[in-house]
Batch of 3 targets.
Target 1
Amino acid sequence: MTHRRVVALATTALTGLLAVGVPQSPAAAADYYAGTSGKSGEALKDALHDIIATHVTTLSYEQVWKALGETDRDPAKPQNVITLYTGASMPWSQHGSATTQWNREHVWAKSHGAFGIARGAGTDLHHLRPEKVPINSERSNKDFDDGGPLAETAPGNHTDSDSWEPGDAVKGDVARMIFYMAVRYEGGDGGPDLEVDDATSRDKKPRIGRLSALLEWNAEDPPDHFERNRNEVIFSRYQHNRNPFIDHPEWVDSIFETARR
């Protein structure tokens, strides 16, 4: 069993420790997603965009450090965070740019759309995760896809010249973060207009792939307690919006399967 899954099981037993002060929000219920009933495809995407782009609090890039200490806290060691691709537990204080530290991994690579670290897409907690600096560097701005040799810095992950395949335990997490970004950022608020396509390329266009792999990953790795709790913390304490695909992973196919055809 991977460390990431062990953490998920431990989290279930230690919900009180991880979620101290985090209320069970009604946001995941019908009232938060009012207006989505009966919709699918582009109509559902538009409705969800309006919901998750409204009344949002944006963070500075500096504020992200503290937020990740809570959203990705190790339930067994509350002063630590769990890194994304290997599930390693590291002290929250051990963040920075040194090779022995963890950094802020942009799951939607910030060069794909050139949004950098600006408030909004560049600081959105729904796609920022802790990761060791060498792993962050090896993943770089690669798209996501199956295949490639084992990554040098990240056991259980694979990579080639233009793609990264995370370990099975977090493939769904990665997919749902990518799908969130494509719905949240439509260009109307001065930010990028992000799209998911079925290609891999390291260009700077506001797109990322590979859609077919991400659809499979969402189906194969459903949301676990760690991911759901993370969504709740971001909603209740920081940005006040949710990743709808954690609450309703079935909406991924409704919106993006059509886009693949």
Note: The first strand starts at residue 73 and ends at 74.
Target 2
Amino acid sequence: MDQRLSLDAGGWCPASLAVASPNFDARPEAGKPSLLVVHAISLPPDQFGGPHVEQLFTNTLDPLGHPYFAPIHHLRVSAHFFIRRDGALLQFVSTEMRAWHAGVSSWKGRERCNDFSIGIELEGCDTQPFEAGQYARLAALIQVLRERYPIEAVVGHSDIAPGRKTDPGPYFEWDRLAGLLEVEAGRLPGDFDKAQENQ
């Protein structure tokens, strides 16, 4: 975890474990991503470890592996990054491409957030706190993404799909992330420009 993160010319992070997902396509416009979306996922729900998230994102999840998997194994979804409980970083899709993570969504009146966002999944759920290593890795990843792209805001999935999604959930400490990013407490989720106005 002490290896500094970076992105290569193709939008891949050399410090991550690359697990290529087929669930992506080109962004529809020439513009660069401007939004970071924080998600939480655990498969089966509230259970950590194992290969199931990677299997879901690579279309190899066994529908017989757990009762929860049968109705979701056919989904074609992905995210750019996945941060495990110990802070290990996996990457499924180049940041230059559109990962299928947000679904029906909008931010500040702009719909289809997949078009202009980068999705970061944390191994977690709505019922348990996240780990210190996850916050550290997430902050480092956000910093390197902000160096490459004109990132205007960092939000949760629940912020772009209210009523439909709850992640990253009530145990995600936005103020803790803000402290690591040197952003004023209470300003995240939201726009970085607004968060830094009074600093």
Note: Residues 43 and 50 are 8 Å apart (CA to CA).
Target 3
Amino acid sequence: MKNWKSSLLGMVLMGLAAGSYAAPQEMDRVVTIVNDSVILQSDVDAMLKTVRMNAAGQNQGLPPDEVLSKQIMDQLIIEQLQLQQAAQFGIRIDDNRLDQAINQLATERKMTLAQLQQQLASYGISYPMFREQMRREMTASEARNIQVRRRINILPQEVDNLAKQLSQQEQKGVRYNVSHIQLRLEEGASAQQRETVAKEAQQLVNQLKEGADFANMAYSYSNGPKALQGGEWGWMRKEEMPTIFADQITTQGNGAIIGPFRSGSGYHILKINKVEGLETVSVTEVNARHILVKTSLILSDDAARKELMEARRQIMAGERTFADVAQSLSADPGSAVNGGDLGWQTPDIYVPEFKDKIESLPQGMISEPFQTVHGWHIVEVMGRRDVDRTDAAVKNRAYRILFSRKFNEEAQAWLQELRAGAFIEKPELADEQS
């Protein structure tokens, strides 16, 4: 997903602050136990310092430390839980993937790698520390993607129904830059508690309509997933938004405050920061074929890579055909019976590593082995074409919209379940009770 990339450097800086600023001290203490991991007070304090630096660079005011500390603690707990899941799955980010991600991040920020290293140094962060924290963020993201994808089920009828709706519209869509505040209601909240939260939400709306800064209010009060980004979700079409957002946005324009409105998780407030023009739908399809080898308890990553290297050599030497090797070796049953052929598809339907590979690989060339969440692959691009058939474009767009919507909703649900099933304890509270 692209969302993690856009905020990755900020989150990495926050996570790294613990290593950069928090030298071991006698006063350091465990503030939270998360299953078999711990969060130290120095972790919270260091991240707080980095949030202050980021806010100062944007001339952004911040609420009191105790408010930010709660937001930071939530982020640290969620990261620990996802890393624990990743360890169970055996997820590892190797140095090559890590280097590619760092180079891509520098490019997106219009920097060279040396300039990125200089910027990190100006924050007092060593480059090795940055690399390891970025590895942690990528590992957590991959664990989340694996689990959430398993929860998503998109029926052909859903795609057809949405495609019919889209086909009746122009091939353009309005985009919104949206910010969000969520006031959480715990499960089983009493009527009085619901009324109290509803009144608080209305008070926030009144203040916002009188000119209060939305980002400051999000930092101070929001329990939403983007609270530490000032509540900003960035640019989205209505179809890409969580359903509770899309249902509330009708004809409002720049600066509109929407809410408060209720969902199962609490009360919400939206602000439309900007509305942007129209976007044309265009589709490029790629015809690719691949061979997949999955690792197991008896087949390591290195062994899988070597097996594919040998298969690639045999194909390129003319000893065997790609189709023959795919039918005998590939662990993807859907394509193996067709000689590895994936058919004409838009690259967006594939996982990021596979998408990047088929977009950059010259036609007719067989790739070196590379890894995705599914295993190790070699791939060959057999053709590319620009598609102007409306039906194909609309169906692909409908699938992406449904997947994006369900992914956002299922990701939040999974994280809530993960936290609800975890052992989380504050040692100082346990000591007081004893």
Note: The chain has three domains: 3-151, 172-279, 283-387.
